[in-house]
Amino acid sequence: MSDAARELDRLRGLLPQAMVSDVRWVEQRLEGIASRIVRGQAVDRTLGEVAARLDASVAEVARRTQLPLTISYPALLPVAQRRDEILGVLAAHRVVVLTGETGSGKTTQLPKLMIESGYGRRGMIALTQPRRVAALAMAARIREETSAGDGVVAHSVRFDDRATADTQVRVMTDGLLLAEAVGDPDFLRYDAIIIDEAHERSLNIDLLLGLLVLVRRRRPDLAIVVSSASIAAERFAAYLSDPSGGDLRPLVSVPVIAVTGRTFPVEIRHQPPTDDDIGYLGAAVSAIRSLHDANESGDVLCFLPTERDILDARRRLHEIAGMEVLPLFGRLTPQEQQRVFAPSRRRKVVLATNIAETSLTIPGIRYVIDTGLARLKRYQASSRTERLPVEAVSQASCIQRAGRAGRVEAGICIRLYRE
């Protein structure tokens, strides 16, 4: 065997240790080098270039492996209690569907489980969130739990991308990941992708799921986890069990992990307005006043459908002594949105649209008031335009909203509609 052939074998052996983004480039050039060796052509220069890039890529993986990161799990979280089982499934399967109640620890613990399974070294772990405020909050929480260094756990939202060469976990909006698919259709910057809050079935999420099914055929090494508190798990698993290539190959089984239990219980109370003339806004303000007058401890999160409703409710409540009323909606700046997480000496009342439904733990929230309404984007085919009507939310959203009350202590969800 010639020296060139021996070097070729060495480089092929290094491929599993290299960055995912370099593997395809190296493989294509190694194939060309092998053909030239068979034809007796000179390959020293090309072989040297490929070896230099591959050796640098392997060294980069080794460097990323040594980045400071602490993996530990809160013992009370249901997901942490099933750590060994989940790690076993992740080791045996590249695609997994995981469901669990709100408060079970899915969003914060899954990235740590992926890191423990060996992901995040040869590429980043993408954790998608439907909304910007959730991406910022989850990145901060995971960074705190792992005692990660600067950039190791980073958030990426529109106009604010903190990812660096050190990033192992990248918490990002699903729209941003979808936009990356234009220039990187195989997601070569990532070795694992977690689609969180899949129950929302937004256009971005549906497109991502469709793209990932196609990417699986070209990248069987890519790990995909679909996670939510309330989804039809078996239907997602059946969709992701796509043939590996063509109809002649058997379906690839996708396991479903159902995590039961939550950290704290939530009591559900249905209190529809007794008078139709009151309306949902009046009923919500009345419920907030009643809770405050009862002198029971705990902050309040109230879901209202529109920004105008939030501003109107704040105007009605701002003069009440001992109450700090904070708005939370998409048009606020990140700094204004972060105010809801700051401690307060008074009772906090957070008036929010549906951006607070998922993956947000606002400290001190004990009560949730749910109007059961949201402004949802709808496409009107006749006029080819989008509109934003106020509609009743889905059962999945109702479950998510109630779960906001049981994140840090036992809570109560008051639903302003009939059971």
Protein described:
The chain has 419 residues and is an alpha/beta fold. It contains 14 helices and 18 strands. The chain has helices at residues 3-14, 20-38, 44-65, 78-81, 83-92, 106-116, 132-146, 174-183, 203-218, 233-240, 279-293, 307-317, 334-337, 395-403, and strands spanning 95-100, 124-129, 153-157, 160-161, 169-173, 190-196, 223-228, 256-259, 266-270, 299-303, 323-328, 347-352, 365-370, 373-375, 378-380, 385-387, 390-392, 411-415. The strands form four sheets. The protein has an eight-stranded mixed beta sheet with strand order 4-3-5-2-6-7-1-8, with helices on both faces. Strands 9-18-13-10-12-11 form a six-stranded parallel beta sheet, with helices on both faces. It has a two-stranded antiparallel sheet with strand order 14-17. Helix 2 (20-38) packs antiparallel against helix 3 (44-65) and helix 6 (106-116) crosses helix 7. The radius of gyration is 25 Å and the shape is elongated. The protein starts with a helix and ends with a strand. The model is unreliable at 244-250 (pLDDT under 50).
